[in-house]
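Researcher: I'm preparing a figure for a lab meeting and need a structural model of a single chain. I don't have an experimental structure, so a prediction will have to do for now. The sequence is pasted below. Please return the structure as tokens so I can convert it later.
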Amino acid sequence: MEHDFGFDFLCQIDMAKSLAQLGQISGAIVGFSVRSTIKASGKIKVTRADAECLLAAKFPVGLALVKVNEEGPGEVFFRLLDEEFTVELCSFLASKKGVKHFVPGDLLPGVEIQEEMKRASASGFVERSRLIAAEKFAAPIVGDVHIQIRRDSDGHTTLVTALDLYKYFEQRNDSDRRALHLATFGVPRLRNKRLRSLALKEGLMGGLARLPQPYVLAGFVMDEPSPTRVGGPTATADLLLFRTGNEHHFGYVHEAGFALTISRRKKQDGQYVHEMHALVDEESDSDWADHLDLLKFLDACRPDSEFTFRGDREIVLEAAYFEGLGKCSNFASALLQSRFLTGFENVPVIVRDMTLEESRATMSWLAAAAMPDSHVIPRKLMTMNVEEGDCEARDALIEVPVVCNLAEASVVVWFSGKGSVFFYEGEPCGFKVRAYESREVEVWEKFAKNSTFPEISLGIATLTIQNGVFAVASENALYGHDIHLAWRLED
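Model: Understood. Here is the structure written out token by token.
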């Protein structure tokens, strides 16, 4: 029959020492799926439905092979569903095969059935077999693993504990690997949330599928304290990092969401190399004001610096090896310099600002603006195509706003100084300032800008500031706020 699956034979076990005697009947019920064959080889096939049926049973079961001989008595072979057979069937179901073949040599001769039946009647045989099988099935996938079945008033729970927590998860493609990389080296407090969103390895779940649910997957993460020093000819700083790692990388993590990662050795262009990166967690909302130790550490990172990682053994690496570290160091230096601007203490700068191109441009410009006598915006600007000599000049206090964006806020820096406003045929057409005497920062709720670069809002137009070059970005500068160039004429 094409759809012959299920149990063909159910029995209780006679505990007598020999077949010639009658003994106590065990309470255990044993079921067998029986397959007969007249082939000389004795080959039978087990389908996926057969395997599913055997593995789903809650009582001792097995497979029986009856080899029919035309010229004499038939032969019986059997195999109980113990831990080894469970692993074999789970592996079959995890494959793409439709059938699995067995011959008499794969099974035990019928004369051994009495001893095997004693094993099957032992208390907890099924549960113990499945537990050991699950451990054997999972070990090649996650390494050393220990599985426990726990019972309480609410039922059963299967606790699976691996030495390496990260080995539970798929790493089949770049997306899987990036997600696991971020869970490993990103903000530690987000680790559990991120791990819950990762895909579990298919093979692992196939091995656990026959155990009581729900499953609790537990494991260990290596977070060893590693006092770290960065030092060079011009600066030195210390920071407490934590060494951790997964199958593909190890690295040093800071609680704010910054890490230095190092790949396991890999072959590239005929030689073995390690890839090293500075990682900033794009979801880190940690305020830099709470992590001045990290800020000063990054500020001390120079191309000619060295990292000294201390732990079980000391590791020394050149800072220049870590890709992306220069951007982090430049950002930290700019942030420290920007603090000299009046009102900057109210600016919300968070760790993920380091990952945003606009925030990096903002911070670089703010650092320049904080330097004494810096010329980061024009001291003279004509908004009409006219000559200064053709205009009427009137003394005034000039206030020029520069608008920048960070991750969570818009920042307006007002430059104020005494100078002149130019009028042409009664219309204002420009200004000139001798020196900007004050530079004060305002913080606004974040709003849209015309570009990712700092902007000078003139009211009738917007100028962008990119690497000290000024360019008209838009003919209208509508931020939804009253932010534009202003002046107060002197009497």
